[in-house]
Write a structure and sequence with these properties.
The complex is a heterodimer of chains A (480) and B (206). Chain A contains 17 helices and 19 strands. A five-stranded parallel beta sheet of chain A has the order 5-4-3-6-7, covered by helices on one side. In chain A, strands 17-16-15-18-19 form a five-stranded parallel beta sheet. A four-stranded parallel beta sheet of chain A has the order 11-10-9-12. In chain B, strands 4-3-2-1-5-6-7 form a seven-stranded mixed beta sheet. In chain B, strand 6 and strand 7 form a beta hairpin. Classes of the chains: A alpha/beta (480), B alpha/beta (206).
Chain lengths: 480, 206
């Protein structure tokens, strides 16, 4: 177009930030409008601040409360007193302020980052905040989504806005295709191990490349969910046809003519081809292997066919030494020789239907050698999984099939491992004591956790997948 | 929250990388109201063994310590502001480290706790100075936000802090009051936002 004023190329982050910036202070801080505020039991500090000042919730219609962190998973009426009181407190606060609550008895209840997308609360182009660091999950839809602390939760409740400093833009491109048996979880653990748990501090990470585009929405959510474990408060993936197909028809997504209008506005939610990123990194997707953590930081991760590292061979030898001591591991031992005591399959990272299918695919017709808990990411996921018989697969393998909640990812509801116990876990943090004082966590994909259940040790899922294929072929030949 | 510019106190070092928020305050303590004081929970499982006896961490050897020197990626992990409450209620006003979790740093500044960034080499030297001062009941420290400088015993260093955080720590602003000054802009933004398809949830009537 002749005569048009040339505009500076923008990143997706630039666009989302601009679309939500109400004001900017002289020192550079932005006041951002919040389209969706998700609160959970942990918001009690923020509601107490509001009460202290006699303030009300500015936009109850944009605020949604969910019982997840303290949700009892075995008996909805049970759980520790402390957990029940936390849920009661959330219920009282939601009622007092006219906020919709997805409580324990609600068939839509679930972990906040599973529920938001499921209910169509999460849409491309929105700003979404929650007092939880894994709010980065919603960035998989091209939403500006980030975790905030209690002071900011109170601020959002009172004003529907939040003060924030604009992060720098980083792009992480996965070129090419993933190998069979490799998942979004492995991509995430892989990049964090390569660049470090603090690599993306101060940045929003936009994920790009063929391997990212090939991921399902579930996989993209897993990838964005783990952004914070690499230091980034924000993960972003531009919306495409898959995103739109996922959102279409969800309870709170726009309908009718408004749907068409919305889809039309989402088309621009991408980075311009010549947009400048503050940092660019590339990974050849074919080099990503099924990955497990061996330490107490997500950066302490290796391909499953590796051995426990010698601290001197790592980037941070002192940290590695402390990690091996806590984890009770010996340098040089093959990771596949490490015995586990239990497995956990669930969480906002890997508790979606696709994750449960992947785990069930390994467990079908097999027995678990160790006890384990399978907690669907939401009550909706639970129903869908039961409708296709996945619950039976887990039960017949010897695992416990329970209700939805954050469960053993953070243990606030009492689902904890004992001191010294080693857990193969599909969660997001292998921090010291995260799953119980003295408990040892190994992070991995759902299929890898299922493989660990079957063998009783850390295992390469590809071996079991190959076996499964052989068995199926053999059965097919027999039938013919 | 009141603002501050200069702080003098005693420094203590805890030179591990990745002291995450689960270590700063284990999740089981987070249902307690703030009024009960969170200092007792700070780094609980590192400071106390299973029987509740002290493990002799430096933190407990320097009464009244208010400047903490630590390794990289301090406060990584969850958004739990309780991690900051634990540090503040224990008496800390400053944490010095090579890097901080983004959400932790924001929470810290919201509570008047300075996250001061120094290089890894400087953190090690400052930690040594803090350890050298242990015999005398804790190293003397002085931190000047405006100048961006800090001193532990005779060791000095410049620290990095964004303009946004510097201003906020010094002014001790209450964000809610500050935001109210933007009421007109917020109302105008809201009105424009209402026209954006999807900006309000469909079928959200309860």
């Amino acid at each position: 177009m002749t005569g048009a004023i040339p505009t500076e190329p923008l990143t997706l982050l630039d666009r989302l930030w601009r679309d939500h910036e109400v004001a900017r202070r002289e020192d550079g801080a932005s006041l951002l409008w919040v389209d969706r505020h998700l609160v959970h039991e942990g918001s009690h500090h923020a509601f107490a601040k509001l009460a202290d000042r006699g303030l009300h919730v500015a936009e109850p219609g944009l605020t949604f409360a969910v019982a997840d962190h303290y949700a009892p998973t075995r008996d909805r009426a049970g759980g520790p007193d402390q957990a029940r009181e936390m849920i009661a407190r959330l219920t009282r606060n939601a009622e007092a302020h006219g906020i919709r609550l997805y409580g324990l008895r609600d068939p839509r209840q679930g972990i906040v980052h599973v529920l938001g997308p499921e209910q169509g609360l999460t849409l491309p182009g929105l700003s979404i905040v929650c007092g939880d660091s894994h709010t980065s999950t919603h960035g998989a839809f091209g939403a500006l989504a980030f975790g905030i602390g209690a002071t900011d939760v109170a601020h959002v409740l009172a004003t529907q806005c939040v003060w924030a400093a604009k992060p720098r833009a980083m792009r992480l491109t996965f070129r090419g295709k993933l190998a069979p048996g490799v998942t979004a979880k492995d991509m995430a653990l892989g990049w964090i191990a390569r660049f470090g748990a603090d690599a993306a501090l101060g940045h929003a990470v936009e994920y790009a490349g063929e391997a990212v585009e090939a991921l399902s929405m579930e996989g993209r959510m897993t990838l964005c969910n783990l952004s914070i474990e690499g230091g980034a408060r924000f993960g972003l993936i531009p919306p495409d046809a898959k995103t739109i197909a996922y959102v279409d028809g969800r309870a709170h997504a726009p309908g009718g003519a408004k749907w068409d209008d919305a889809v039309a506005t989402w088309g621009v939610l991408r980075s311009d081809p010549d947009a400048r990123f503050d940092r660019e990194e590339e990974i050849d997707a074919a080099t990503v292997a099924p990955t497990v953590t061996w330490g107490i930081s997500p950066e302490q991760a290796l391909p499953i066919d590796a051995s426990v590292p010698h601290p001197s061979d790592t980037r941070h030898p002192e940290a590695a030494l402390a990690a091996l001591d806590y984890m009770g591991l010996k340098p040089g031992d093959p990771l596949e020789s490490v015995r586990v005591d239990r497995v956990f399959i669930g969480s906002c990272t890997n508790g979606r239907l696709e994750d449960l299918r992947a785990a069930a695919g390994i467990l079908r017709g097999r027995k678990a050698r160790v006890p384990g808990l399978v907690s669907p990411g939401s009550s909706v996921v639970k129903s869908m999984a039961e409708a296709e018989g996945l619950d039976r697969v887990f039960r017949e393998a010897g695992l416990e099939w329970v209700d939805s909640g954050c469960s053993m990812c953070v243990g606030m509801n009492g689902d904890l491992a004992k001191a010294g116990e080693r857990v193969a876990s599909t969660t997001n943090r292998n921090f010291r004591g995260r799953q119980g004082r003295g408990a040892r966590t190994h992070l991995m994909s759902p299929a890898m956790a299922a493989a660990a259940a079957v063998t009783g040790r850390l295992s390469d899922v590809r071996a079991l997948q190959a076996n499964a294929a052989t068995i199926e072929v053999a059965a097919g030949e027999g039938a013919a | 929250m009141s603002g501050w510019t200069v702080h003098s106190g005693r420094a203590v070092a805890l030179m591990a990388d990745n002291i995450d928020t689960d270590q700063l305050i284990p999740a089981r303590f987070m249902s307690v109201p703030r009024s009960e004081g969170y200092g007792q929970f700070l780094l609980h499982d590192l400071r106390f063994d299973d029987t509740g006896a002290s493990t002799g961490l430096a933190l407990d050897a320097v009464p009244g310590a208010s400047v903490l020197i630590a390794g990289r990626n301090f406060g990584s992990g969850s958004s739990r502001e309780a991690a900051v409450y634990a540090l503040v209620d224990f008496g800390f006003r400053v944490v010095v480290a090579p890097s901080f979790g983004d959400i932790f740093a924001a929470n810290a500044v919201n509570n008047g706790l300075l996250p001061a960034i120094v290089s890894e080499a400087e953190a090690r030297v400052l930690a040594q100075a803090a350890e050298d001062g242990m015999a005398a009941g804790g190293a003397q420290a002085r931190v000047d936000i405006k100048a961006g400088r800090l001193r532990v015993q005779d060791t000095t260093a410049r620290f990095a802090l964004s303009d946004i955080d510097r201003t906020k720590l010094m002014q001790g602003w209450d964000d809610i009051d500050l935001t109210r000054a933007h009421a007109t802009e917020i109302a105008a933004f809201r009105a424009a936002r209402r026209a954006v398809p999807g900006a309000w949830p469909a079928g959200a009537g309860t």
